[in-house]
Design a protein that fits this description.
By secondary structure, this protein is an alpha/beta fold. Helices cover 40% and strands 21% of the residues. An eight-stranded mixed β-sheet has the order 1-10-7-6-11-12-15-13. It binds S-adenosylmethionine. The site of S-adenosylmethionine (SAM) has 23 residues, from β5, α2 and β7. This is rRNA adenine N(6)-methyltransferase.
Length: 366
């Protein structure tokens, strides 16, 4: 990965032709190179959609915008006019150099009397930082907004990387595959209510802005697209996300089944029981350490640590493993009135309640 500043003369825009590659895949020629479908290179050619994306983000002049996959810079150039800085992460070195050329050679034509004067303006050079690298493997710098027409094959890891990013950004407007966008905004009971929907909506407010047809891209992708808006929840819900994801995975592996049947499954029960025994063992070990610390150190720091541990253990009473895990889980499901429900009908508060009650009994999922 390298950080490049823009520095190259402007280039002309050539014809677009299709050509088969050595692998037999169709690629579209543009400028001096071919667009590669394996890198999701579908360039937005409709300026109206670009304006919509920028508009819906509520961009301000003081904003630092992260763009994933700037490509030839159709969106980047518009962003540079509206914000303080654009940080663009691009994996394809040919696109990086094309964008550098474009930002360096912003030509401004002005008609004066009978002459056309062409000014070579470079107002955006200092506002653009290009990072050459894979967006999934790159550490994101600070940004307020993320506006991007992303390569669809990295949608899921990218969204969770964005949602895990700290400090929180204000919002993201992203172009995604329509089917993926619909899963993100699905509601309990919808056919596509899934792990993706529940995890996205736990961490962010998600809105479906509009469907975008294939004809708005060059070359056109095989699938329909859609614009979504993500606003991270700030502060995020005070839960252990690994624990949460463990529970949601179990529930959504067979999301049409009754919860009591899911938690009756042999391998599910075995895993929970294993975690439960480990958890009880660890707590005993912690108690031992705390007691030892009490005897060994009387200094304030240790005392503070001890009291913290004390409150921790005071809250979680169970030290002995539960004898009948299956029956206890069944009791918990009945207590929270979820035994006869199916995961696909449950909403986020239902899952939060279930996780809390199972955790309180010493059952964990990470
Ligand atoms: C759908 S195109 C978007 C181009 C441009 N933003 C536009 O709207 O016209 C996706 C871009 O992401 C780049 N890309 C693909 N995989 C990437 C990755 N893992 N990290 C960063 N960029 C990537 C591609 O090279 C391509 O330029």
């Amino acid at each position: 990965m390298s950080i490049l500043s823009s520095a190259a003369p402007p280039s002309g825009y050539g014809k677009h032709t299709k050509a088969p590659t050595s692998t037999g895949k169709k690629e579209e020629r543009h400028h001096a190179f071919y667009f590669t479908s394996t890198k999701g290179q579908h360039i937005l050619k409709n300026p109206g959609i670009i304006h919509d994306m920028i508009d819906k983000s509520g961009i301000k002049e003081t904003d630092i915008v992260l763009e994933i996959g700037p490509g030839t810079g159709n969106l980047t150039m518009q962003l540079l006019e509206k914000c303080k800085q654009v940080i663009a992460i691009e994996v394809d070195v040919r696109m990086v150099s094309e964008l550098r050329k474009r930002v360096m050679g912003t030509k401004v034509k002005k008609k004066k009397h009978n002459f056309i004067i062409i000014f070579l303006k470079r107002p955006f050079e200092s506002k653009l930082q290009i990072i050459h690298g894979d967006a999934i493997k790159t550490n994101f710098p600070f940004f307020n907004l993320c506006i991007a027409n992303i390569p669809y094959q990295i949608s899921s890891p990218l969204i969770f990387k964005l949602l895990a990013h700290r400090p929180h950004f204000r919002c993201a407007v992203l172009m995604l595959q329509d089917e993926f966008a619909k899963r993100m905004v699905a509601r309990p009971g919808d056919y596509v209510w899934s792990r993706l929907s529940i995890n996205c909506q736990l961490l962010a407010r998600v809105g479906y802005l509009k469907k975008v047809g294939k004809a708005n891209f060059r070359p056109p992708p095989k699938v329909e697209s859609a614009l979504i808006r993500l606003e991270p929840r700030h502060p995020p819900p005070p839960i252990n996300f690994l624990e949460w994801d463990g529970l949601i995975r179990i529930c959504f592996e067979r999301r049409h089944r009754l919860l009591q049947k899911i938690f009756n499954n042999k391998s599910v029960l075995e895993n929970i029981e294993k975690n439960h025994r480990l958890f009880c063992e660890m707590k005993k070990w912690y108690v031992f350490v705390v007691v030892l610390l009490l005897f060994v150190c009387v200094c304030t720091v240790v005392f503070v640590q001890y009291t913290t541990q004390y409150f921790f253990f005071k809250k979680k009473k169970h030290l002995e493993p539960v004898a009948d895990v299956k029956a206890t889980i069944r009791k918990v499901l009945e207590e929270c009135d979820l035994a006869d429900k199916r995961p696909r009908h449950l909403d986020i508060p239902d899952f939060l309640k279930l996780m809390k009650m199972l955790n309180d009994k010493g059952f964990h999922f990470k």
